[in-house]
Specification:
Length: about 350
């Protein structure tokens, strides 16, 4: 444990920011834990047809539900404005949060890639078996655990003076010995956890929409709208966090960087809490997507939604294959006639 000499160099030193952060995280805990558990139960116990999209959503719900359960520790941290859980939990909890960030965006990216393949190359969908999907997801989780290591290394307990109460507080804060450590960690988070995945996602959707406009089968299936909503929601809630990262990395105003750094660190309690909101937003999105099933199916409405997603993916694939077969028949007939 080290001593900190700056009065306001941690996210919990700002009373206003910690109050907002505590309120947001409490809302996240109350909505996110039961919401994501309901998704997991719906898929495992009630869903009959498990498409690739459904399997990815299951993994996303498991990751989000687990991290939502851990928010209780951060609520206590912000409320008490001091860390009471020890050094191991300090490193471990922030490591798991960082891993969840990567896992969420990578799973969303895989959903977008799968939608693109389903539209552009439906004849290749048979190659994407459940065994292949399982191996890809396992590889993704290994990658997530590896690239989250910096958040484990650059995190430790510090003693920070609290002049207002003539006392001191223990904070769990980043420990960047050199400026290069700051640039490395925050650049890795933003580039690997936001910029690159979103570049892939946008590319997938541009190619998908272009193909849909070229084909006669332009019926927008339910899973496509649902995935697009998940992508947009994740971006909205994580964007402020990554803006803070990039401002700290770039050091916009070198002359007054210390003051900027203090302000940014004070904002982290709020931006980090907003990022947590993305994990409890998905159950709400699924509820809106499946609202047409609620009256008829009751608590099974979400399972019905996922069954419908699987059916629509299979239908879209069959339609595209039928179109290809029809084109081949017409081309063969034309060739025979000309012959």
């Amino acid at each position: 444990m080290t001593a900190s000499t700056n009065e306001e160099d941690s996210p919990v030193s700002n009373d206003y920011a910690t109050a907002i952060g505590t309120l947001i995280l409490t809302l996240v805990f109350l909505l996110g834990v039961p919401g994501n558990l309901f998704i997991v139960w719906s898929i495992l116990a009630r869903t009959r047809k498990r498409s690739v999209t459904t399997i990815l959503i299951l993994n996303l719900a498991c990751a989000d539900g687990f991290i939502m359960a851990l928010t209780i520790f951060f609520i206590i941290y912000l409320a008490k404005q001091t860390w009471i859980f020890g050094a191991v939990m300090c490193k471990g909890l922030f490591y798991l949060c960082n891993a969840n960030m990567y896992a969420s965006i990578f799973l969303i990216t895989l959903m977008s890639i799968h939608r693109m393949v389903a539209v552009l190359f439906p004849q290749k969908l048979y190659l994407i078996s459940r065994k292949v999907v399982t191996r890809v997801i396992m590889g993704m989780w290994v990658l997530v655990m590896v690239i989250s290591i910096p958040s484990l290394v650059f995190r430790e307990l510090e003693i920070e003076p609290d002049v207002s109460e003539n006392n001191s507080r223990i904070v769990c804060s980043p420990n960047h010995t050199w400026p290069t450590h700051v640039r490395f960690q925050y650049s890795l988070e933003t580039v690997s956890g936001f910029i690159l995945p979103y570049a892939v996602i946008i590319t997938c959707y541009v190619l998908t929409l272009r193909r849909l406009r070229q084909t006669q089968f332009q019926r927008r299936i339910r899973s496509e709208k649902l995935i697009l909503a998940i992508v947009i929601t994740f971006g909205i809630f994580w964007f402020p966090y990554h803006v803070i990262n990039m401002v700290q990395v770039s050091k916009i105003c070198a002359m007054s960087f210390d003051q900027i750094n203090v302000s940014l660190e004070s904002c982290r309690a709020v931006t980090s809490a907003l990022a947590f909101l993305s994990s409890c937003a998905n159950p709400i999105l699924y509820t809106f997507a499946g609202k047409s099933y609620i009256k008829k199916n009751g608590l099974a409405f979400m399972a019905k939604l996922f069954d419908g997603t699987a059916s629509s993916e299979q239908t879209a694939s069959k339609q595209k294959e039928s179109a290809g077969e029809m084109n081949n028949i017409l081309n063969n007939s034309a060739t025979a006639t000309m012959g």
